[in-house]
Design goal:
Layout: H1 2-19, H2 31-41, H3 46-68, H4 72-85, H5 90-100
């Protein structure tokens, strides 16, 4: 029961952090840092996995927006943060490859 209660607390806190747009900051009080221990308690927890995937999607969206504005430095930063959250995120990996190949703007 204690572990389940802790998991529920972590997931509720992460949802609040997401609503308040505390995705990666402030350090020690953000959704990424809250979802990760939830996954340590339950590595198959669908809510925590979906939460991290959604956060990676947010950073992919930010990267696309910044690329469209030719803000390559901000786009690269968004890609980097997204990949820290979800290293296997296909879209972010593709965007990262564009930067590595020297491409500047989204199609």
């Amino acid at each position: 029961p204690g572990q389940r209660d802790r998991l529920r607390e972590l997931l509720a806190a992460a949802e609040t952090q997401v609503r308040e747009h505390r995705f990666t900051l402030p350090q020690g009080d953000n959704a990424v840092e809250t979802y990760r221990p939830a996954l340590l308690l339950d590595p198959t927890n669908a809510q925590a996995r979906a939460g991290l995937a959604a956060l990676a999607d947010v950073f992919a969206h930010r990267a696309r927006e910044q690329m469209a504005k030719s803000n390559d430095r901000q786009a690269a930063s968004a890609v980097e943060l997204g990949l820290m959250i979800s290293p296997g995120h296909e879209e972010l990996r593709g965007l990262s490859g564009k930067f590595a190949a020297g491409e500047k703007h989204a199609d």
